[in-house]
Amino acid sequence: MAETSVRKAKKIPRPGSAKYVWYKICRNPLALAGVIVICLLVILSILSPYIMKYDYAKIDMRSAYQGPSAEHWFGCDELGRDILARILYGARYTLSVGVLSVLISAGVGVALGAVAGYFGGAVDQVIMRFLDIMAAFPQLLLAIAVSAVLGTGFDKCIYALGISGIPRFARMMRANILTVRNQEFVEAAMSITCTKPRIIVRHVIPNAIAPLIVEISMSIAAAGLAASSLSFIGLGVTPPTPEWGAMLASARNYIRLYPHMIMFPGLFIMLSVLSFNLIGDAIRDALDPKLKD
């Protein structure tokens, strides 16, 4: 009662709620800075065709290899295209690949892990042995193999990264399901003849999903970095699409003479990955029951 009174006096939201997560982020300057950076990137990527002086695909050989200047803040690439315009427009691809691929991984992984953990037995063995085969390969290597089979392109890159991330989420979900499937609220749902799919969706998954929310937030950064890696080796989003990893691949031959061509895309990759990691750390702190205000 005393703890509840103090919490109300401080106007602290209920732990575990979305408002509490946002409250913790706002109290963490680094996490709040990460949110601001990601929001700015999203807004600028949407508005870039309207606010940028130069089109991201416009070729101007007279400006080729030009360094940063008042005319071109980040300089120009080997075809005279404005690097700032390409970076802002390319944020659409890098951030979208990271978010969408993680949503695919989490969606499929949660479903498989929930079924395996709840039913157990032969169902658990079949699902987990299949996932063990996938998990035997490093995630990036598995993504490269899937991408080599599916081909290159924006959508293929999303599928490759999404498929390669399924085992991690499925294992986490299965472990969480095993801890909650025998609790009283599950037995109460079974006693009123709830169907098994309803029990899994309405009762088991919501009570086992919290640790995965943290993993999702942390995985977006890793997926964005992996997307840039695939594009860098030619198996992700390919030129002339201005994805950051593809921009690095195009500029690698000019790193000694024109370092600005590779420095700015690399800087934005670093900023986006760092921002998502900071946000993930804050979400982890907010959802960790061992940590208190």
Give a written overview of the molecule.
This protein is mainly α and 293 residues long. It has one domain (21-55, 73-287): MetI-like (MetI-like fold, Orthogonal Bundle), CATH 1.10.3720. It is 70% helix and 0% strand. It contains 13 helices and no strands. The protein has helices at residues 2-9, 18-26, 29-51, 83-119, 121-135, 139-150, 154-164, 166-180, 184-191, 196-204, 210-232, 244-251, 260-287. Helix 2 (18-26) crosses helix 13, helix 3 (29-51) crosses helix 13 and helix 9 (184-191) packs antiparallel against helix 10 (196-204). The longest helix is centred in the middle third of the chain and has 37 residues, at 83-119. The chain is elongated, with a radius of gyration of 23 Å.
**SSE string:** HHHHHHHHHHHHH
- Number of structural domains: 1
Low-confidence stretches: none
Structural class: mainly alpha
Largest sheet: number of strands, sense, barrel closure: none
The radius of gyration over CA amounts to 23 Å
Q: What is the CATH homologous superfamily assignment?
A: MetI-like
- The share of residues in extended strands comes to under 5%
CATH architecture: Orthogonal Bundle
CATH topology: MetI-like fold
Tally of extended strands?
0
Top-tier CATH class: Mainly Alpha
pLDDT average, as an integer? 82
**Helix content percent band:** over 70%
Euclidean distance between termini CA atoms: 16 Å
